[in-house]
Amino acid sequence: MPPREGRHAVWPDRIRAEVIAAVQTAGIQHPWAHQARAAEHALDGESVVVATGTASGKSLAYLVPVLSTLLDGSEAPNGRGATALYLAPTKALAADQCRSVKELSHPLGNSVRPAVYDGDTPFEEREWVRQYGNYVLTNPDMLHRGILPSHPRWSSFLKALKYVVIDECHTYRGVFGSHVAQVLRRLRRLCARYGASPVFLLASATAAEPAVAARRLTGLPVVEVADDASPRGELVFALWEPPLTEMQGEKGAPVRRTATAETADLLTDLAVQGIRSVAFVRSRRGAELISVIAQERLAEVDRSLARRVAAYRGGYLPEERRALEQALHSGELLGLSATTALELGIDVSGLDAVLIAGYPGTRASLWQQAGRAGRSGQGALAVLVARDDPLDTYLVHHPEALFDRPVESTVLDPDNPYVLAPHLCAAAAEIPLTDEDLELFGPETEGLLPQLEAAKLLRRRTKAWHWTRRERAADLTDIRGEGGRPVQVVEAGTGRLLGTVDAGAAHGTVHEGAVHLHQGRTYLVRSLDLEDSVALVEEAAPPYSTVARDTTAISVLETDVEIPWGDGRLCYGSVEVTNQVVSFLRRRLITGEVLGETKLDLPPRTLRTRAVWWTVTEDQLDEARINPEILGGALHAAEHASIGLLPLFATCDRWDIGGVSIPLHPDTLLPTVFVYDGHPGGAGFAERAFHTARSWLTATRQAIASCECDAGCPSCIQSPKCGNGNDPLHKRGAVRLLTVLLRGAPEAESGESGGGDPGEGSASASDGATVAARSVTEPVSAGASPRGPVADAPSAVEAPSAQQAPPAP
Question: DSSP alpha helices (H): ranges in 601-746?
Fold first, then answer.
């Protein structure tokens, strides 16, 4: 990728001279053009999103107008005529930003008083922050649970609120993003009550339609600044496919060398050559493994080199993070193996090389990580090391899918009733809800309020709805989790509480026999008590990892949209999914070789969510030469591969979604493949799949057809989470079936891919609206439950029981 020259501009003349002087003192003489343009919009009172590359100076773009306004406000009689609120997705990022603001604003004296307000803030400091802080840095969780429910104590701060900064806003996607969108609507409502109308300043990684995503998140019109004017050195980007080994996997499938082992070798080679590198890995275990392997291999070359590679993981203190960052910048540390959380907690730009162990799930994340490579004007290297799965394999063989396509749209659905209901309760507890609030919270609100009233959560008095319970309404939902009592992970020998796991995640992650990682230590789960929500663990060092397997049945509750695809049909609507974790696999570390499978006895759980599904007819099966003996395997293979490829079209992980395939489904009476959201009420992923179905299923067909294996392997149609042991699967049948199905797909219209019109009165997927109104308490369809499906559910983290979802208190 060729180098790019930087383009300078001048700060708007309304920026205070003292602020410009402070920026120049920090070594920045002139802003880049996009920074000056964003500041201009902010001063004009227009909400703006800055969506430019890594290390392009987004922070300065919003900090300069904020500091200038705070300086103006410091001259008010009470010394706090203007305030600003900063939201970060992690506490680490908020703490880092606070340090940066303090350094930048030091020449301004006490006029700017930045302060972090989160769960770690000592109680004695909290009152000072409320009374005197004028730049408060927090996270959406604290805003939801701490600040908004206590708004009378924050009244002077909210009354003077001029700016709300939302950093790393591309991370607010799916269910978490939908919750944050409703938290921001509650914030806007309270600000209006106190007479304030803050401007929203958002910073995002490069994203498709950043203004649309920002509008969906905030509920306000947002101007977009996406023309990156910062300089960039040449970047060489390599796609690396690990070689096949002589080992065999399930059903004799060929197995590739793992991305973890391959990345460790590359990190070793780079360190030996003195090249400063970071390896991004998705799991903490992976980060530590890469670090350990690289240290061992470096010690064989030169013992002193082994100390110059380290792992970065969660649980580090701010000072330790700073020391690590400093060691990397100074060159004392040559290699760092880190989880992707590093993106949001530490400044490691300006490296020589970046290794990415496995596609990080979205093109936005890929470019965010690759952007860490490259110091001012110098060339750099980025390497994507493919994992042995359909999506990674597809990308390595179809580089145009990475380099010739824009990054994804951020998918979120604030109108999901399972998300909206608890926030309506929380809003009513803050200030009683009135008819004027209906528009703010979205079109589903009017239909939900009577349901919440019937559930005795809200009560209507005269013209307003009031919260009726003694408990805190904000505790109805965990904006990052899915509700339900968290399972406590306890060390059996000492009784020490190690941490907690979301209720929905427990079945798949802390079942009996599971390998559990905590703070770099490995534990084996001895027992899981679901009644008391306790998992007992013992420290151990097993030579394997564990992966849970589950089975799934699905029934159609309501079909919202149905589009003919030749004789077949593409549908979108509401479904009920019954999921049960039935066993777990033990896989050897490094190689991924399957060592064995152990049965489990756990209860089934039910989830009501949204799904996309397609059907085929007898005539289409005949055309594709699919006889009854291979029908189940062909459908199952197509389902596996389509789940693997969907993250290319929606900002989801394959563990956010699940699938079911069945040769004769009782609700459709046809061979059917379902792909569903693993969250109560849906997360927007299935809707995105519906709207991009033609492109999505075309890529799925290509991925299967281009794989070098004979009968199927993890690179194309085998799934690590298959509850049926990847049986039956029929690779060639899946290719023929998808070929016939796609022949009937309508031509793409207006930038979408055969997803069709979602129906009258509803918005397109790009507007983030739901396709049709739906209720929290949908009745189960009278049809018989599915028999004999082949299914792949999302991990339990993403598929909690809908029975626990609001409005149950």
Answer: 618-623, 628-645, 685-691, 693-706, 731-743
Report the pLDDT value the prediction gives residue 763, as an integer from 0 to 100: 30
Q: Which residues contact 506 (CB under 8 A, 6 or more apart)?
A: 487, 528, 530, 533, 535, 796
Whose CA is closest to 97, among 141, 51, 137?
A: 137
- Provide the residue count of the chain: 809
At position 707, the amino acid (one-letter code) is C
270-274 contacts, C-beta under 8 A, 24 or more apart: 270/334, 270/335, 270/352, 270/353, 270/355, 271/298, 271/305, 271/308, 271/309, 271/334, 271/335, 272/298, 272/301, 272/302, 272/305, 274/334
Per-residue model confidence (pLDDT) at position 762: 30
Residues β-bridged to residue 40: none
CA dist 681 and 775 (Å) reads 9
Q: 237 forms bridges with which residues in the sheet?
A: 382
Angle between helices 58-73 and 17-25 (to 10 degrees): 140
Residues 6+ apart with CB under 8 A from 760: none
Q: Pick out the chain residues at pLDDT < 50.
A: 749-788, 794-809
Closest CA to 572 of 580, 564, 581, 563: 563
> Alpha helix locations (H) across 160-255?
174-193, 210-218
Distance CA 118, CA 447 (A): 35
pLDDT, tens digit (0-9, with 9 covering 90-100), for 431-447: 999 999 999 999 999 99
Cα separation, 85 vs 158, in Å, equals 9
Residue closest to 42 by CA, chosen among 151, 208, 163: 163
Question: Can you give the pLDDT at residue 792?
Answer: 61
Q: What number of other Cβ atoms are within 10 A of residue 400's Cβ?
A: 8
Q: Is the dihedral of CA 62, 67, 68, 69 positive or negative?
A: positive
Q: Are 645 and 699 in contact (CB under 8 A)?
A: yes
Decide: 534 and 509 in contact? Cβ < 8 Å. Answer: no
What lies within 8 Å, CB to CB, of 631 at 6+ separation is 621, 663, 671, 733
Q: What is the pLDDT of residue 331?
A: 80
Cβ neighbour number for residue 175 with a 10 Å cutoff: 27
Helix, strand, coil percentages for the chain (3-state, nearest 5): 40, 25, 40
The tokens describing 79, both together, are 């010394």
Q: How many CB atoms lie within 10 A of CB 239?
A: 18
Nearby residues of 454 by Cβ (< 8 Å), 6 or more positions away: none
Angstrom distance (rounded) from CA 569 to CA 654: 24
Q: Under 8 Å CB-to-CB from 306, ≥6 apart: which residues?
A: 295, 296, 298, 299
For residue 722, give both structure tokens.
């298959």
Q: What is the largest CA-CA distance in the chain?
A: 83
pLDDT in the model for residue 252: 77
**pLDDT score at 651:** 74
Q: How far is CA 611 from CA 50, 138, 224, 480, 624, in A?
A: 33, 35, 32, 22, 25
Nearest Cα to Cα of residue 725 among 568, 577, 599, 617: 599
Question: How many whole angstroms separate alpha carbon 180 and alpha carbon 73?
Answer: 28
How far apart CA 341 and CA 96 sit, in angstroms, is 14
**Single-letter amino acid, residue 64:** V
Structure tokens at 95: 């703490």
CA distance to 307, 338, 638, per residue, from 303 (Å): 8, 22, 50
Closest CA relative to residue 477, chosen from 771, 767, 148? 148
Place of tokens 């991924």: 592
Tokens of 741: 């199905």
- In the numeric block, the tokens 């589009």 are attached to 563
Written as six digits, the tokens of 640 are: 């596996």
Q: Find all residues with CB under 8 Å of 469, minimum gap 6, and list them.
A: 457, 809
